[in-house]
TrEMBL record:
<dbReference type="InterPro" id="IPR011202">
    <property type="entry name" value="UCP014677"/>
</dbReference>
<protein>
    <recommendedName>
        <fullName>SIR2-like domain-containing protein</fullName>
    </recommendedName>
</protein>
<dbReference type="Pfam" id="PF13289">
    <property type="entry name" value="SIR2_2"/>
</dbReference>
<feature type="region of interest" description="Disordered">
    <location>
        <begin position="1"/>
        <end position="44"/>
    </location>
</feature>
Length: 580
């Protein structure tokens, strides 16, 4: 059987890893938007006003938000096909008519997927196009639906990377959004997508695929991703056909209980779904039924729907709307309408987490293991608790451990602590405003490689620690024995962008020559910070640069992403000038 050649990706359908979950044959529930914003927006540019308003709402909660990620996200950043486009791609690939299949099942997409899987099955086993897939997965294909799942998984696995050729990399505005999203402070991600985008954006999060992994594992519900409809990395996990959906709903009592806990304790932001998505409505209806009609109002600020507006001139807004979820009862929720997602993600980057996610996961897991699986033969010791804000805790160094420890374990505590440090710790240390100085050897061996691993474009100090470790000879660093990431930091460029360089050369050079003159000028803050990267160091004292940086650093919580980036670059330049 000769099959038509696979055409280039049809960008008209390249919209997401999968489309909205199929709409079932039932009457759609009403969405009734209210008029006017949910609260008074602060004065300022629309994006900044929204970010401040949304951030204020999120800070009213006692827990960090969860993201509920749908096909629109993968569509936006990876250019992947939506649900119907995915099926159409594989129907076209084997010369079948998807429209005929849809008409034959009254437009039911899961049913059409099952029909497509049936006719795809013999083609996959015989055609040379799928020979590599057969070699890898033939032993696992044991029903007539598995071959299509393997082909779909392969397709998405090959297109899940953020690399040249996808919108999230090629489009500058979308790249900014992704940079903000990957730095967002959220407690977890729930997704119905098959692709790996959420894993790439949140590499520190533990990923659970399907209900089985979630049920059989010790999930901590801290810094985790739940791929509830499967993953392209596990082809047979995909929830694709009508049979898959029936099985999913028959076994989802555990998942529903966990989702209820998340919805009750966290704000949940639905991103990449349509407001009319029946699958999401079913989830919310289940949660509403569990909560009961008398307590629906308690959820009104727990649920946010992000509704994308194609008009680039759209000002981002938050408004209230109502979803009819129970007979005679509606659930109030928050609707966010916007064109660019940057103001939304910018708010998420400004939330605060008490501990790095890796530490939180380890603390949570060790406590869980201690309580759930105690060892009756292990001796118990008294634990003394001191409030962090008490005078007795001013100089307290806290180590949390479970189990027995050797002297070697204790000697390695510096490395353990180093892995929890962030670029802010290094900046404060170099500026001399950190309570406890950092050990140079620990920074070079552990801290810097760890920061670079998770912030590949980080601009952080390095020369102070080279100097203190006696690794600078006549102004030249001794590179032997250093991690490659540290060597890269030594050579990194600390120049501002081309626009700021040109503006500095035409307006500032020779007019403002010291850091104080720059900071006291009327230029925008982001440009003043960029000017600090351009000033001739022969024209000012380094202590003056330090004082200016300390003043600016005090504003860190209120700085924009670009201002923060420039500030950390300026601090790295101060480190280079002072210690190299």
């Amino acid at each position: 059987m000769e099959l038509p050649e696979l055409a280039d990706d049809d960008r008209a359908h390249s919209a997401g890893s999968r489309g909205a979950a199929p709409v079932k044959k039932q009457v759609a529930k009403k969405l009734t938007p209210t008029t006017g914003p949910a609260s008074e927006a602060p004065v300022g540019p629309p994006g900044l006003a929204f970010t401040g308003e949304f951030l204020a709402q999120l800070r009213e909660h006692n827990a960090l938000p969860y993201l509920f990620v749908g096909s629109g996200v993968s569509r936006r950043y990876l250019g992947l096909p939506d649900w119907e486009g995915m099926l159409r791609h594989f129907a076209d690939e084997i010369g079948e008519d998807l429209d005929f299949m849809l008409a034959s099942v009254n437009g039911d997409l899961p049913a059409a997927a099952g029909e497509l899987a049936r006719v795809f099955h013999p083609v996959w086993f015989k055609h040379r196009r799928y020979s590599a897939q057969r070699k890898e997965y033939k032993a696992e294909v044991r029903d007539t639906e598995a071959a299509l799942k393997v082909a779909i998984s392969t397709y998405f696995s090959e297109r899940s990377r953020l690399q040249a050729g996808v919108p999230g990399v090629d489009n500058a505005d979308l790249a900014v959004e992704l940079d903000l999203l990957r730095n967002s402070i959220v407690d977890g991600v729930i997704t119905t997508n098959f692709d790996d985008l959420t894993d790439e954006l949140f590499p520190e999060y533990t990923s659970y695929v399907g209900q089985d992994e979630l049920i059989l594992s010790d999930a901590q519900f801290v810094a985790e991703t739940y791929k509830i409809h499967g993953s392209s990395r596990q082809p047979l996990s995909l929830v694709l056909t009508a049979g898959d959906y029936a099985n999913f709903h028959n076994r989802n009592s555990y998942l529903a209980a966990k989702l209820l806990t998340i919805f009750a304790e966290h704000p949940v932001i639905f991103l990449g779904y349509s407001l009319g998505d029946q699958y999401i409505r079913d989830i919310i209806a289940s949660i509403a039924a569990a909560v009961g009609p008398d307590r629906l109002d308690a959820l009104q600020k727990q649920i946010y729907f992000v509704d994308w507006n194609p008009d680039p001139d759209t000002d981002p807004t938050i408004s209230q709307f109502f979803i009819e979820v129970l007979p005679g009862h509606t659930l109030p929720a928050q609707r966010i309408e916007m064109h660019s997602f940057a103001p939304l993600f910018a708010a998420l980057t400004q939330l605060e987490r008490p501990f790095p996610v890796r530490v939180l996961r380890e603390l949570s897991k060790h406590v869980y293991d201690l309580v759930a699986h105690p060892n009756p033969e292990q001796a118990r010791e008294t634990v003394r608790a001191i409030p962090f804000d008490s005078k007795a805790a001013d100089d307290l160094r806290v180590v949390f451990g479970v189990g027995s420890f050797t002297d070697e374990d204790v000697e390695q505590l510096a490395d353990i602590g180093g892995k929890t440090l962030e670029r802010e710790d290094l900046a404060e240390d170099v500026l001399g405003i950190r309570t406890r100085p950092l050990a140079a050897t620990n920074v070079l061996r552990v801290v810097l490689p760890q920061i670079v691993k998770y912030r590949g474009n980080a601009r952080v100090p390095v020369f102070k620690y080279l100097r203190e470790a006696d690794l600078i000879d006549n102004g030249k660093p001794k590179l032997g024995g250093l991690d490659e990431s540290v060597k890269a930091l030594i050579k990194q460029s600390l120049e501002p962008g081309d626009y700021s360089k040109k503006r500095y050369a035409s307006n500032v050079m020779g007019v403002l020559t010291t850091p104080r003159e720059v900071l006291d000028s009327d230029y925008p803050l982001y440009f003043k910070i960029d000017c600090l990267l351009c000033l001739d160091p022969a024209g000012f004292e380094l202590d003056e640069l330090r004082d200016v940086l300390v003043e600016t650093y005090a504003l860190l919580a209120d700085l924009t992403v670009n201002e923060k980036s420039g500030l950390f670059k300026a601090i790295a330049r101060y480190d280079r000038l002072k210690y190299s």
